[in-house]
Amino acid sequence: MARRDMSRRTRTAAGPAPGPSLWADSNYLLFLALQALSALGDSFSHVAIPLLVLHETGSLAQMGLVTGLTGVASIVTGLFAGVVADRVDRRRLIVVTDVARCLLYGLIPLVWLFATPVWLVYAVVPVAGVFAMLFQVTYVTVVPGIVAPGQILKANSHLYGTYAVAGAGGPMLAGLVAAALGPAAAIGIDAATFAVSAVGILFVRIRAAAPPPETEAEGARGGSGPSDEPAPVEAERGGVREEFLAGARFLWRHPVLRPLTVLLTLLIFLTAGMTDVIIYRVKEDLGHGDGTVGYVLTAGTLGTLAATFVVARLRGRLGFGVSWIGAHALGGVAVACLGLSGSVPVLAFIAAGMLFCTGVGGINSMSLRQEVTPSHLLGRVTSAFWTIHNALGPVGAAVVTLAAGVWGVRPVCLVVGLCAVVIALTGTLTGIGRARTGRVEGDRAAP
């Protein structure tokens, strides 16, 4: 039984027949439209909430406090979000997260009709962040239940594209609404999008996750020789800590996911603060205004959108390992070039190149996890992956931005970019470099 399951997952990772076009699948198109609407609503809140706090308090520190509280809530939730996603009906969980965020965000404009208690924002937004993390983990687990195994990469490309478009257009629309009706009204629009999403997801067909195997623990490796699949950890149940560690163990035992997690953790440590560095470069070093900053960051978003159109073709021609390593190595080169030019158009082009590379690597990485992880374990693996590789991001952002303020953008970008290139190329010495489809090619003959 273990062998049959492993063979099924191997065929999935290797890219089975893709089936009908996703654009002809009305079920998938409904899911994609709902995610686009939800992403657009999120972009409203990302702009409107800081504007609301700034409007009421005039304090940059209080804006940062709201953002910090939300980040802490998301990290803590990541420890158990995967456990929840693997233990309950995933469709119902998505509906619950949408309804909860609809009610929480809807409370702000409702109360703002009568009073302006800023403490309500501090109470509501972090709680909404908890449900946001639950949604993000669960959404990753349902994609393989909506599309065919060979279409996961393309589906993720489309979803990434919707987020890129929302990220480019949403803030502008949110700013217009906030200027005309106030920030609270823009938050109300986000609440409405969650209501529509909660109703719409009821009509999306999602294949049920296969039940966890009960007797895989013994003999999963065939009794001899190494296998290209990690030893099963699905049966490990217990408290939140034990189940989170079950996802982490799957990552550690997989010959590609293990180095992928380690290298991404290092890369995110180095690059998490790059958006702040770009803003500092444009405003402080080059003396341009907020409009120019928006222009450069929008160009970066267009780079993400461009990645969605080519990532499937790149992986098909080059394989997973080459496309992932190449994307992050080129991304490191782009980071190194940030401090070398004083031209805004060139900086915009570099920002687009950076996010293009990040998009190619990110879509590949997410798709690989969905392809090689058993469905009933996917929530815990996703939760563990995100929690581990994002853990050093805030520290890295603080270190890099502090260093840029002290020594300047140019030397810091050169060092960060060089280190990113070295880390990416290190992947050639690991299972990533030997993997074309998510398997380690040298392990094909393993019994």
Brief overview:
The chain has 447 residues and is mainly alpha-helical.
Outline the structure in words:
It is built from 16 helices and no strands. It has helices spanning about 1-15, 25-55, 60-85, 90-110, 120-140, 150-180, 185-200, 240-255, 255-270, 275-285, 290-320, 320-335, 345-370, 380-390, 395-405, 410-425. By secondary structure, the chain is an all-alpha fold. The model is unreliable at about 1-15, about 215-235 and about 440-445 (pLDDT under 50).
Q: What composes the largest sheet?
A: none
| Overall number of strands | 0
Distance between the termini: 15 Å
Q: Mean pLDDT, rounded to whole units? A: 80
Low-confidence stretches: 1-17, 215-236, 440-447
Radius of gyration: 22 Å
Share in β-strands: under 5%
Structural class: mainly alpha
**Assembly category:** single chain
Inertia-based shape: globular
The number of helical segments is: 16
Task: State the helicity in percent bands.
Answer: over 70%
